[in-house]
Design a protein that fits this description.
The structure holds two protein chains of two kinds. Chain A is an all-alpha fold. Helices cover about 75% and strands about 0% of the residues of chain A. By secondary structure, chain B is of the alpha+beta class. The chains are: A mainly alpha, B alpha+beta.
Chain lengths: ~170, ~325
């Protein structure tokens, strides 16, 4: 962290190499579009690069990265263009069906494809919580810190998101 | 605890986020409720599927692209971008502005014959040979300072030295020789120069003066009021700098006795425009008004005829062979 704050290029490269897949994964799950996800992920690291000297360190570096990524994704989803087109969610739904490209490994079965579509159909505020918790493995506290939410709100949204997913996957259960 | 209450705790139960009393309460309910156990099973299955989803992988080359984008830009490139901006925007904008200004300047110049006339007057004009040999006119400065340029006042600065007897070639200063060349290139040739220039001089004579062409054609088409209005304003400035603008003695000097001088001056302006003449100067001296014109030789008879209609025209000086382009001084009396 000290090397990163000192502006060492190698430290920044290490950071990008270490977190690239996680940050990109959050963006891809939230936006559902490969190109947009890469754009947002790149923007996350550029912001870290610009402001790492001011990072107080009162949360984990990973939490800070997720916080930036989440905010950028939610901002992007809130833009008028996204609201009109809803292209990301449509693309994410197709990802589950086709399984091609880098996201192809995500969907190896019909159940997983259905799950991906169900995640894409979740409301954005629930989707980001379930992505951070069940796909990225953050704790409730880390999610609350990253999203600036109360712990109870995180717990509630996560529960609603999981219940939504369960309902949509009902036909696959015995 | 109801089924609804128990199911609300499923997430926290799976994530081990419940306190001991709450957990115990949920477990007690599950022991006695098969439906909630079944529901919990489905819920667990869903979360397990979520955990099994393969993580996404960033595309190849992602790290390199991020590092490239994060590389600091050298200070001179940042400065250049800030000063110049995107060239694809600045170049067309600059070119458009340049064309606009140039177009506006040409338009104004073409639509204002007085400007053309003033520009021609400010260029050095070689006096006709006859004028140099003739005694200096009343308005000409003293020949005591024949080659000294006028003081650089704002009005007289662009005007070359006043006419003076031509010094012998050997006595000419380099400045005189340069002025002669410039004058020969810009002023219409005198009769003497015409004969010296031969065919070249004829071709120059054939070309009408630039300032007179639009005035002659425009006079026939535009209404008199507009023409008068347009001519009146610049005439003031021409009259104001008349002493400095007089560069050659008039070939023809005459007196026009009129009853109403203001009316006669207006009539002369119309006549001059009709004949393609350009007014050189206009000034008032004592009880007289003096107007000087440039006029093509061919139009001189018509001018004399027109002057006869305006008043009583008396010629005081007129060279025997008329040069191709005449400078005429008309003194209004009465």
């Amino acid at each position: 962290m000290a090397r990163l704050r000192a502006g060492e290029a190698e430290a920044f490269e290490d950071l990008v190499t270490r977190y690239q897949h996680r940050v990109f994964g959050v963006a891809l799950r939230m936006l559902g579009n490969q190109a947009e996800a890469e754009e947002i992920a790149q923007e996350v690291f550029l912001r870290v690069h610009q402001s790492v000297a001011g990072f107080r360190g009162d949360s984990k570096l990973s939490t800070w990265l997720y916080a930036i990524a989440s905010r950028l994704c939610l901002n992007r989803l809130a833009t008028a263009e996204r609201r009109m087109g809803r292209r990301g969610e449509e693309t994410l739904g197709r990802l589950g069906a086709t399984g091609d490209g880098p996201a192809g490994d995500l969907e190896r079965s019909e159940v997983e494809a259905a799950l991906s579509r169900a995640i894409a159909e979740l409301p954005e505020d629930r989707r980001i919580v379930v992505v951070l918790r069940d796909l990225e493995g953050l704790s409730y506290e880390e999610i609350a810190r990253a999203l600036g939410l109360e712990l109870g709100t995180v717990r509630s949204r996560l529960h609603r998101a999981r219940m939504d997913l369960k309902d949509k996957l009902e036909r696959f259960f015995p | 605890m109801t089924c609804h209450d128990a199911r609300e705790q499923f997430s926290a139960l799976l994530d081990e986020a419940l306190g001991d009393p709450e957990r115990a309460a949920v477990e007690r309910h599950l022991e006695g409720c098969a439906e909630c156990r079944r529901e919990l099973g489905r819920f667990q299955h869903t979360v397990a599927l979520l955990h099994r989803l393969a993580p996404a992988r960033a595309p190849l080359g992602f790290v390199d692209r991020v590092l490239e984008a994060a590389r600091p830009t050298p200070w001179h490139q940042r400065l250049g971008r800030r000063l110049l901006g995107p060239l694809r925007v600045r170049i067309p904008l600059g070119a458009a502005a340049l064309l606009l200004v140039a177009g506006a300047a040409v338009y104004v110049f073409q639509k204002t014959p007085e400007l053309q006339q003033a520009a021609r007057q400010e260029a050095p004009v070689a006096p006709p040979l006859e004028a140099r040999r003739a005694p200096p006119p009343p308005v000409a400065p003293s020949p005591a300072v024949p080659t000294t340029p006028a003081p650089p006042t704002p009005e007289a600065a662009p005007v070359p030295a006043p006419p003076a007897p031509e010094p012998p070639a050997a006595e000419k200063t380099p400045a005189d020789r340069v002025q002669d060349k410039v004058g020969a290139a810009t002023a219409p040739p005198s009769a003497h120069e015409e004969s010296r220039l031969g065919k070249k001089g004829e071709s120059m004579e054939a070309a009408p003066p630039r300032a007179e062409q639009p005035a002659a054609s425009g006079a026939a088409m535009e209404p008199e009021s507009a023409r008068k209005e347009r001519k009146d304003a610049p005439r003031q400035s021409l009259a104001a700098r008349a002493p400095a603008a007089v560069q050659a003695a008039p070939e023809i000097v005459g007196r026009l006795a009129v009853a109403d001088r203001a009316e006669a001056l207006r009539a002369l302006a119309e006549l001059a425009a009709k004949l393609g003449a350009s007014e050189v100067s206009r000034r008032a001296e004592a009880d007289e008004s003096i107007v000087e014109l440039w006029l093509p030789r061919e139009a001189y008879p018509a001018l004399v005829e027109g002057l006869g209609r305006i008043g009583r025209w008396t010629v005081e000086r007129e060279p025997a062979p008329l040069p191709a382009r005449l400078r005429i001084s008309i003194r209004f009396t009465g």
